[in-house]
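Q: Structure tokens for this one, please.
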Amino acid sequence: MTVAPGRAARLAGWALAAATAILVLVNQREVGIARDEVVYMQAGARYADWWIGLVTLRHGIRAASVTAAFGGPGPTDNNREHPPVMKTLFGLSARLVHGALGVDEVTAYRLPSAVLHGALVLSVYGMVLELWGAAAAVIAAVLLALLPRALFHAGLACFDAPSMALWFLTVRAYARGLDRRWPWQVGVAWGLALGTKHTALLLPFALGAHYLVLGAIAWRGVAPGLRDATRAARARAFVRNVLGHRGRVLASLAVLGPITLYLVWPWLWFDPVHHVRDWLAFHLGHVHYNYEYLGRNWNAPPFPWHVALVTTLFTVPAATLAAAVVGAGVWIAERGRAPGAPALLLAMSAAASIGPFLLGTTPIFGAEKHWMPALPTICIAAAVGAAWAGRAAAGAIERSVARRVPETAAIGVVAGCVALAAAVETQLAEPYALTWYSALAGGAPGGADLGMNRQFWGVAVRGELPRLAAEARPSGPTYVYTHDASPAWGIYQREGRVPRTVVDAGWEQAGIDRSDLAVVIHELHFNRHDYLIWNAYGTVRPIDVLTADGVPIVSLYRRPSR
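A: Here is the predicted structure, written as tokens:
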């Protein structure tokens, strides 16, 4: 039964949201710059300048100015292949928070993702509070905040964690909109989700399926009274009760969703049909980057159907998964009892997010970041499971020793154990969370032994920068083969993490031949870079190896002739 939360309960949700955002901001300080972030930062700065110029009347709305900031003839010009909502927020944050308040540049760019992750925790907390009570709400919020991979992605100026947040905000707005006269929130939320990442196009499959299930439930109550009705009357009743029982929700999605996307994306203001087609065509024909899975490098379909399932199994804390299994059992046992079928909605949301990766043709190069909208469902199920286990434990103790045990205390003990286990795994994972794997995989060493991907985007080089700076020549330039960290090198120099005299030597063989120092980021398909360096330097011995829980992730070589 849905209950109205009290003031103290609402304040607790805001406190958990704020704590989560702060946790993200603190954690990201040690996380390296992903190469995709550099592209989004640059594009976001242009987008923000365009909007600031529009508001301050420095320019009007003309096709030429919109194209110069948001589009272009090429498929990746001004990063037009990705919607602009988060990039615009990144740019505005950099202009206002970094420029006006003096917060460091990278943190300013990453701030919107952190804030939105806090909003996700608040939304999850609010939904669970209304449906399953305060204890489960707190547990769900804490477990969501203590997801190592999600915490990592939430600290980047990228789209994946924000996409998860806006996906769930849409799900919750839909659930609440079923009982509202004017559910405009669901359409706006979905429009913003579309404006963040194209994967939001999958969400209507979950919402539509759930909507039809509710319609079928309504039809079961109406159909017996229509046995003697004409076929036309039965057809009208079917449309009214199954297809149109909450028609305003569908209208909000169908009308306000596209309108919101159109309003936040100036590139669509001119020739929208052609531009939408270009946007979708880019992703339907997306390249397949290299990715290691179970000891093999994959860069073309067919991919194993179980990639998403196994990777999720190995990248969610083991205790959280165990509690989620219990919670799923509780939901199955209680099926049909909760008005609005919220557990079914959450399950369909997760299925819509993860389902395409079971086909064997969807690109897998980003692993869990692509199906992150499934994670809130897992955490909510875990909260329901932990709360049920606490109550069951209290009842079992009372029956065995004939002594009453407060349910709140029992739930606190069970939930505390689950949360503590998740916290330990999170602490072990950061700041190299892409190298971390859960206890089920045997941690980072177990993941490496199983042949799971160690990292991507070049973020791990951040931990090797102090040694690189120490190796710089006292005077004159020091040329470094920076490998996959090359796009971020200028930012590292601006931040003062490496001297400006430590210069990117260039790419591939020419860069190695020019370099004094060379970095190799350990991914299976990057092994050839080791061989190129060994041949050019005449040595196979690195001067330093950066590890995460004993797993090598970055090697640094120095040319002996220096």
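A few notes: Residues 182 and 264 are 22 Å apart (CA to CA). The chain has 23 helices and seven strands.
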